[in-house]
Design goal:
This protein is mainly β and about 190 residues long. It contains no helices and 18 strands. Strands 3, 4, 6, 7 and 8 form a five-stranded antiparallel sheet that branches.
Length: about 190
């Protein structure tokens, strides 16, 4: 019988595991909020750059682009939320003096629509001498948004002029016929 010589060592170590904070967010309008209610610290980023002073659990998105947060819990464990692409709404403006419709000149591309139909060649941030009707523009951004504007309605302005109108109504009383005489002496 042969003896096998073995050397075995046994050691014991306690390991404490700390969980990561939740990295989920919710959106309501232009507010982006982290859903983890723990005692965390937050650093918000816009297009990869920390947003100065934004250390709460939510941020109001004011400019179009990618937003995310780095969340650190009380144990020092950090996690990054998924980026959220914010595409703000745009509204065309009509300038009656310049006789043009425009949006801000900060997008990559523009396509204007008139009464729901694409306007050929209308690919600038403005339209000159627009006809009466409904206008909208679809813009694309450098950060990945395609945004359709609200509809702008150009309509004829009808001004109401209130002038007194003198008239006579006769005979009074009338049975089956009456006449209206205007201040210009015409019977109606």
């Amino acid at each position: 019988v042969a003896l096998n010589v073995t050397t075995s060592f046994t050691d014991q170590t306690d390991v404490t595991i700390f969980g990561l904070p939740s990295n989920s967010t919710t959106v309501s309008g232009s507010a982006l909020t982290c859903t983890d209610a723990g005692s965390n610290t937050y650093v918000w980023y816009f297009n990869g750059i920390p947003v100065d002073g934004e250390t709460n659990s939510s941020i109001i998105m004011t400019s179009g682009g990618n937003y995310y947060a780095v969340i650190t819990n009380e144990f020092g464990c950090s996690i990054e939320t998924e980026p959220y692409l914010f595409c703000p709404s745009i509204t065309p403006t009509y300038d009656p003096v310049a006789m043009e419709i425009y949006v801000d000149d900060l997008y990559e591309s523009y396509q204007w629509y008139y009464n729901g139909l694409e306007l050929d060649g209308a690919t600038t941030f403005y339209l000159v001498n627009p006809a009466l009707g409904n206008y909208a523009v679809v813009v694309t951004t450098a950060y990945g948004c395609e945004i359709e504007s609200e509809v702008l309605v150009l309509a004829t302005d009808v001004a109401e002029h209130m002038q007194p109108l003198d008239f006579n109504l006769y005979p009074n009383p009338a049975s089956d016929r009456c006449l209206i005489q205007t201040q210009f002496g015409q019977d109606i």
